[in-house]
Design a protein that fits this description.
Distance between the termini of chain A: 37 Å
CATH superfamily of chain A: Immunoglobulins
Radius of gyration of chain A: 13 Å
Number of helices of chain A: 0
Number of strands of chain A: 11
CATH superfamily of chain B: Immunoglobulins
Largest sheet of chain B: 6 strands, mixed
Order of helices and strands of chain A: EEEEEEEEEEE
Number of strands of chain B: 11
Largest sheet of chain A: 7 strands, mixed
Oligomer: heterodimer
Chain lengths: 115, 108
């Protein structure tokens, strides 16, 4: 089966610019996650969707980050305006559901560099 | 709040030696624990989960609720085991929380 697809793979922008990332989860997966992984750290959850509803966005910096999952399939994550500290790998993952024993499948990630 | 701690950022062993990657967690409910692995230039993927009580690639992990630990063990490390390992905790219906990760290097 096809895995989680993310684009672009790499992005370099100047601070205060905007950027958007796209994620296509595995077909049939209801749950979609966006993680931020800063160099040397573990993945940190930004937002979790169940179908097209938000389950958890408590760690999303809402003054500059936004995410949507229209129609409960693809998702986009936007940063506007970007700061230097946003430089990180942004990982998208999906899982069949949020119940017991759920495996999350990860995309390759988008490496963002803010200069 | 749930939290996962991996005390070692780096771990280096020789081929054939035993290896143990430590993971401690804090969570008030009944946790689901996982180990994820990321090999060089590959995506993050599931290695094993506590509920399955399985051995994958020779690795095992036992959930110790008394010590709130879920250490990953392998009796004889192989060079291909070199990778980044993340312990993760999932609270049902809630977020999947990762530790900071341990970079394992197995030397020939």
């Amino acid at each position: 089966e096809a895995g989680v697809a993310q684009s672009p793979r790499y992005k370099i922008i100047e601070k205060r610019q905007s950027v958007a990332f796209w994620c296509n989860p595995i077909s049939g997966h209801a749950t979609l996650y966006w993680y931020q992984q800063i160099l040397g750290q573990g993945p940190k959850l930004l937002i979790q969707f169940q179908n097209n509803g938000v389950v958890d966005d408590s760690q999303l910096p809402k003054d500059r980050f936004s995410a949507e999952r229209l129609k409960g399939v693809d998702s986009t994550l936007k940063i506007q305006p970007a700061k230097l500290e946003d430089s990180a790998v942004y990982l998208c993952a999906s899982s069949f559901w949020t119940g017991m024993n759920t495996e999350a499948f990860f995309g390759q990630g988008t490496r963002l560099t803010v200069v | 709040a749930q939290r996962v701690t991996q005390p070692e950022k780096l771990l280096s062993v020789f081929k054939g030696a035993p290896v143990e990657l430590k993971c401690n967690y804090s969570y008030s409910g009944s946790p689901e624990l996982f180990w994820y692995v990321q090999y060089s230039r590959q995506r993050l993927q599931l290695l094993l989960r506590h509920i399955s009580r399985e051995s994958i690639k020779g690795f095992t992990a036992d959930l110790n609720k008394g010590e709130t630990s879920f250490h990953l063990k392998k009796p004889f490390a192989q060079e291909e085991d070199s990778a980044m390992y993340y312990c993760a905790l999932h609270a049902s219906g809630s977020r999947l929380t990762f530790g900071e990760g341990t970079q394992l290097t197995v030397n020939p």
